[in-house]
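Anyone up for a design puzzle?
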């Protein structure tokens, strides 16, 4: 990274460091009940315990790699990510072709848009009773809810991308004799890619939010379940440790999506450098 990037990172750390310092002072001065708001040191200690394996290493029965990845936090993070990826793939896989059709065809837009506008304001959480009734408990209802959460951001952005293609491109393609298929594949779709990728980024963020909610209700593992379990036993330090883990995973996903967007859109104006 360049010197300017390191400087930006340093500036971005000022506020978090100050808040953590104030939090530690408040805990040490007993301004808050430690059972309600434990100190940063207690949270960090619990996070490390949550991360590390709880069983001693047994060389006869497991390898070092298997032992290291047997920590509760790693298992919970992995199961949550599997649900996010599965639900997002399902939701985006349905939304992308439908969005392309609705964006490219006025008839398809008129046919599906009223139903989409009725369903879109309904939050995924409202589907929880139906999800449990239809799929029972476990992964299926969680994946169903995540798919709903990812579906509409991808759909709306895909429609907007196709419908807002610059008219200059369309007129130029027509003047060059492009047929409808060529117009869609070579003009509309490439021009809509920035919108589609923005929808994908928003959809993944929404999917990650929904997975935490669904794990608190429908499954018995994952980060959401672990936070709810900690609440039942009044383990405030583990609740905050789980929240920090969610934030770190969310940040990693967003950074990865930003890198992917910049790579795929390196041809786009303003992203060449």
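Challenge accepted. My sequence:
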């Amino acid at each position: 990274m360049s010197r300017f990037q390191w400087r930006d990172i340093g500036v971005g750390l000022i506020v978090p460091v100050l808040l953590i310092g104030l939090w530690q002072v408040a805990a040490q001065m007993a301004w808050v009940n430690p059972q309600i708001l434990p100190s940063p040191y207690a949270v960090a200690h619990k996070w490390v315990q949550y991360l590390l394996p709880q069983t001693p290493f047994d060389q006869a029965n497991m390898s070092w790699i298997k032992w290291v990845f047997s920590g509760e936090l790693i298992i919970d993070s992995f199961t949550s990510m599997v649900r996010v990826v599965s639900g997002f793939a399902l939701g985006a896989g349905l939304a992308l072709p439908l969005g392309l059709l609705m964006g490219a065809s006025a008839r398809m837009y008129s046919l599906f848009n009223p139903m989409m506008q009725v369903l879109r304001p309904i939050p995924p959480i409202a589907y929880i009773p139906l999800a449990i009734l239809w799929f029972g408990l476990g992964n299926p209802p969680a994946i169903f809810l995540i798919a709903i959460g990812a579906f509409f951001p991808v759909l709306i952005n895909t429609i907007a991308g196709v419908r807002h293609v610059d008219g200059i491109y369309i007129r130029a393609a027509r003047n060059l004799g492009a047929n409808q298929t060529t117009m869609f594949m070579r003009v509309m779709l490439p021009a809509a890619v920035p919108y589609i990728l923005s929808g994908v980024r928003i959809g993944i963020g929404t999917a990650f939010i929904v997975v935490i909610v669904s794990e608190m209700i429908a499954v018995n593992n994952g980060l959401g379940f672990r936070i709810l379990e900690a609440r039942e036993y009044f383990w405030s330090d583990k609740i905050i440790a789980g929240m920090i883990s969610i934030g770190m995973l969310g940040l990693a996903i967003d950074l990865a999506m930003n890198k992917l967007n910049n790579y795929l859109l390196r041809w786009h104006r303003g992203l060449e450098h």
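A detail worth pointing out: The mean pLDDT is 83.
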